[in-house]
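For the sake of clarity, the format in which proteins appear in this thesis is described at this point. Each number in the token line that follows is a code from a learned vocabulary of backbone shapes. One such record is shown here in full, so that the layout can be seen directly:
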Amino acid sequence: MTSVAEILKSKPDASVHSVAPGDTVFQALRTMADKDVGALLVLEAGAIVGIFTERDYARRLALQGRPSMSTPVRDVMTSTVLCVRSTQTSEQCMQIMTGKRLRHLPVVDDGRLLGMISIGDLVKDIISEQQFIIEQLEHYIAGRR
């Protein structure tokens, strides 16, 4: 099983994109579009105080007719943020994500933010592991070790 640390190392860009709680939703959406990400951590004085996702925008702003130009992120962000440690496995993260219906998990060790993984990162890792196993089985069956 792959660890979260290994998944972070394999990412082409391990940057964590963030906004401040007082930034407008419009600013957050612009950052998400510029960085091609579906979620931003909400940081205040370096601490995680929330997460703002496409789902937050759709459900708490767009459907309620709130203006993105003047609504602060703090009003629509998800305040309870589940985090994982770098030693956890992709399987453990997948269980958390599917059980809690999440798409993004910040990675924090000893209070230090190391990165963020997405459901896409986990799916990519699982597919890669399965392809490796299939290749090994094919070699075994064909008699090539």
